[in-house]
Amino acid sequence: MSSKDHTNILALNRRTVLKGAAGAAAASALPATIAQASTSKTGSYAKRRQDGEPIKLVYFNARGGEAAERALVERYMEENPNIEIEYLSTTAIGGPSDTDTIANLIFNIQADTTIDVSKVEVQRTPLELMSIDAALPLSQINEEAVQARVDQLLNTNTTAIKGDVWGLPYEYDPFGYIYNADMYVEAGLDPDKPPKTWDEFRRVNEALQAEFPDAWTICHPLKNLNKIQPLVWSAGGWYWEGGVPPTRANVTNEGTVAAYKFFDEWAQNGWLNSEEISTDQSIQHMVARQCAAINLSTTTVLLYQANAPETDFRVARYPTRDESFDPVNFAGGSALVVPSTSANPEAALDFILWLTSEETQRLKYGVEGDLGISEQDLFDQDLPTNIAVAEVLADDPTWSEAMATFDIPTRPAGGLSPVYSRAYDVYASMQERIALTDVDVLSELEAAEADVQALIDENMEQLPALYEGSDDATPIA
Amino acid sequence: MAIAGQPPRPAATRMQRLGKSIRKSRAAYLLMLPFLLHFIVVVAYPMFYSLYLSLTEAKLNSDPVFVGLDNFVDLSEDAEFKTAIGNTFYFAFFAVLGETVLSLIVALVMNQALRGRIIFRTAFFLPVATSWVIVSLMWSILFSRNGIVNIGLEWIGLSQQPFLGDGQQAMWIIILMSIWKNLGYYMVIYLAALQSVPRDLIDAASLDGAGPLRVIWNVTIPSIRPVIYFVLSIATIGSMQLFTQPFIMTNGGPLNATLSIVQLLYRKAFVELSFGYGSAIATVLLLLLIVLSLLNRRIGNLIAH
């Protein structure tokens, strides 16, 4: 080890120790901090509300759905005249992750900008914020109310970390197999029977290819790790081991190898798209019948239906390896968090509880009441996380296809850690090589696993406190 | 001037002369102040801060840690970075060549007294006024698997091409699109220069029996040589900063075949949140641009003399 390494480790160790000590002190002082933040000279938060004292909240939207969010803010202020909400937003460039919006939010937090509530991406951001002490645990603001709400929502396994609830899922973005039922019929397939197993999937793609030799029978974003995870999980595979964050990368387990070999089979048979496809490009490809089916967010079917209303687009779950495997899905979406710079945590949580309530979500999705937004804006948001509202939409003809996989059990992405962005890129590049070149799948998986493990090891050395309690051997599956 | 009977005044010091000069040009400095402030805040400070960050390991959740030249050492071993450099130079070479030469040819034609030349000039300039993002999206639709170009190829009996699905073809589509979009901009610069070529020289050459091409080669082009080098310089600098086209059309793919230096910088800094490493890439790009600009100037001076 060079003296430079030694200096850096010393600097890190000093920082880590100080951070750990600061963290411990902060954690013990947290309830008092939350209480103090919510208390003005005139009294507690409850009293301030009772007295009608003006309370200001700052709501930072980092996850789109602008029109609906603004309308909801207006509605909340109408119902609570003493609450004033300053609405801020940022937009993300479409890409493999939401890291640019995470960065935007964290820059603001580091600059001590008061932000009381933030709508963020659900899979990675709560942990990212937690790991740098940039968010408050909701369960420590009002544990009873939070727990009661958690039971009413989907996707809560992504925001419950290390015994605390760090955010409430707000919008739900499940994945699915979106297919052109008209093309199924022309290929002699039953559109009411999409493939449920890999063998059925093979037969469907063979039939589609025979009828449409120039089309891609299954389209899939080549450099998108999230979209392939349901296929891996439904084959009994996994990516990570250890807790949150994980301590080991493992993509050479039998299920994951089988899934990627199956993915390679799509490419070798000419079923799979031979160029990258983004969500925007997918509209063109699906409407023009270049893709007979696509693995994507189920809400995308609304875009296809809007652009080609005469075409019968449907949604089904990803096929499982065989009937002995249970279907598992991935669902992204958004969550509502209370950043550490909140000046009114209790008021912030009240707002979050209102936004995630069944009544508000019914309003948000046009089930009951009118938010005054256009139909385009109504569809420009992910699905509801409130279970009761989701069940209502599942029976609505407009939403039924988009809701087709909402009740498939989901898993969090796992691997949630400060290295996730770089690990994602390693796995996504590997996936692209498998799709576009003739490589040995197992060798690619082994190499990628080694690269990601090196990233984890480096991170464990830099932030040992974060990995306390992570079990080395437990598969996150 | 000394006055008789009085001791000579001492010579003004340098500071006094400077102060006098500033006072004299006070209005000019005041007018420059907004630009200077903007330059310092938006350009100079971020540039120097980025240089500092390139010597650190800077992540989102920790203070920058000084690591010296480690980032640059890592860059020298980074296969992705080497790919990005190669791609960027490949793009820059052909794009600059096309933009510089084709726009000159078009300008020479547009400089003639042609009927309807205003319409043609406008048509050539219109792409310049459009957004890179929109143009990139449109070209990716045109060259998609079932886009109009492939439909046209099938119609004339040729086979469909992968276009954006093939690394080589994707890069050439980006090059051609960039030439098409920038051509009008450089054409306008050349047109302005051509207007200033002394008519006498051209007339004299014609009288001596020189044909049109000879006149262009021996009179016109030498006369606008400084403008040609200017176009070369700005085209090179612009091309080395390739980002929007591959980001929108191919996301650097397939298999990093269209990955540019700036796109890699974006990925490292804003997707992987490694700001130190991203800043190191920015520093290398800056050094490359400085070297290219100096080289361009040196070649220009050599040929001029």
Rounded to an integer in angstroms, the radius of gyration calculated over CA atoms of chain B is 26 Å
Let me know the number of strands of chain B: 2
End-to-end separation of chain A in angstroms reads 37 Å
Oligomeric grouping of the chains: heterodimer
User: Architecture of the largest domain in chain A, according to CATH?
Assistant: 3-Layer(aba) Sandwich
Could you explain how this protein is built, in words?
The complex is a heterodimer of chains A (477) and B (305). Chain A has 477 residues and is an alpha+beta fold. Chain A has two domains: 3-172 and 333-394, D-Maltodextrin-Binding Protein, domain 2 (3-Layer(aba) Sandwich), CATH 3.40.190.10; 174-330 and 413-476, Periplasmic binding protein-like II (D-Maltodextrin-Binding Protein, domain 2, 3-Layer(aba) Sandwich). Chain A has helices at 3-37, 45-51, 66-79, 99-110, 125-131, 143-150, 181-186, 198-211, 229-233, 254-268, 279-287, 300-307, 345-355, 358-364, 375-379, 387-394, 420-436, 441-462, and strands at 55-61, 83-89, 117-121, 135-136, 160-161, 164-165, 168-180, 240-241, 248-249, 293-297, 313-316, 331-339, 383-384, 475-476. In chain A, the strands form three sheets. In chain A, strands 1, 2, 3, 4, 7, 10, 11, 12 and 13 form a nine-stranded mixed β-sheet that branches. Chain A has a three-stranded antiparallel β-sheet with strand order 9-8-14. A two-stranded antiparallel sheet of chain A has the order 5-6. Chain B has a single domain, classed as Orthogonal Bundle (MetI-like fold), CATH 1.10.3720. Chain A binds chain B through residues 4, 8, 11-12, 15, 95-97, 99-100, 102-103, 106, 128, 131-132, 214, 216, 222-223, 274-276, 278, 280-281, 284-285, 288-290, 418, 421-422, 425, 429, 432-433, 436-437, 462, and chain B through 57, 59-63, 65-68, 70, 137, 140-141, 144-146, 160, 162-165, 250-251, 253-256, 267, 270-274.
